[in-house]
Structures are given as C-alpha cells and as structure tokens.
Design a protein that fits this description.
Elements (H helix, E strand, L loop, with lengths): L2 H25 L10 E11 H6 L6 E4 L1 H13 L6 E16 L2 E14 L4 E16 L2 E11 L13
Length: 162
C-alpha cells in the first residue's frame, strides 16, 4: 500500500474514533469530560445555516476556551431547570479536508435524536460540523468546532452540547 494512502487512512480512522468518543461522552451523560475534547483555548460555536450563509455573527452558543465550557456544564448541572432527556448522536460523512503540520481540518454531518422520559423520540437537530483539530502529544483535540444547524429554530432549550 502506498505510504501516503496508509497515512491518510490512519488519520481518517483516528478522526472517526475521536468523533465516536465525543458522541459517546455526550450520549452517556459524561458531560464533565466534554471540555477535555478541546484545547485549553478551544472554541465551540453553534450557528444556524441561515446566519452562516448570510455572514451574521450571531451564535446560539459561543464558548471561548475550556473555562466557558466547564461553566456551561456546571450551570446545566446546578442551575438550569429543564425536562430530563437524553440524546443519541449519529455522525456520518466524516471527511478530512486538509492537513497542515499538526493541524487537521475535518467536517461531518450529524443527526441528534432526543428521547424524553415518556419515551417520545424526535429528531432534535441535524447539520454539519466544521472542525480544526490539533495533534497534541499523539491525542487529537479540537481547537475549534463550528456546529451549523440546518434549522433556524430549536423547539426547546439547547442544554446539552451537540
């Protein structure tokens, strides 16, 4: 097998594993581990497709650094009041779209199903992620995650990260 193809496949598998681990942490309610997927100064933003296409700077969620992510999870656990529910993330169409040194640019599609305590399951969100990952001592970390929602409305409070 060609060396460059082997390196590409190895990187693709690492990114796939990273995305799977990310989804499982959220779906298993291990939210305190979520900030660890980012670099210390990592950014996490959620924007609607409409705002992104129009170049509007309004984000539904904007976390700049792990500290803001930790605060978000702490507030969710201690201060927010919302109807209990669980998410199930499906991530597909993962693509590594560029590599420069330790920096990896990737994108994926996602669908998030939300199940309420009464058993009702609905599609909660779907869209794309545009990520910049860094290889930090052999571990992948998000320097930036931009979540682009296909819909411009969410039917309930966006509490758990996507």
């Amino acid at each position: 097998m060609d060396q460059s193809l082997n390196e590409h496949l190895t990187l693709r598998l690492r990114v796939d594993d990273f995305y799977a681990d990310y989804a499982h942490v959220l779906d298993d309610d291990r939210l305190e581990e979520w900030p660890d997927f980012f670099t210390q100064d990592g950014a996490y933003r959620i924007v609607t497709r409409e705002n992104r296409e129009l170049g509007l700077p309004l984000h539904l969620i904007y976390c700049d650094g792990q500290g803001m992510m930790i605060d978000r999870i702490t507030a969710m656990r201690t201060a927010n009041i919302y109807e209990p529910h669980v998410y199930c993330h499906s991530i597909s169409a993962v693509r590594v779209i560029g590599v420069e040194g330790r920096e990896i640019r990737a994108r994926s599609n996602f669908t998030v199903l939300r199940t309420m305590t009464d058993g009702q399951t609905l599609i909660f969100a779907c869209g794309r992620t545009f990520d910049t990952l860094l290889d930090v001592d052999g571990e992948l970390r998000l320097r930036e995650r931009l979540v682009v929602l296909d819909s411009k409305r969410i039917d309930t409070l966006l509490v758990i990260p996507l």
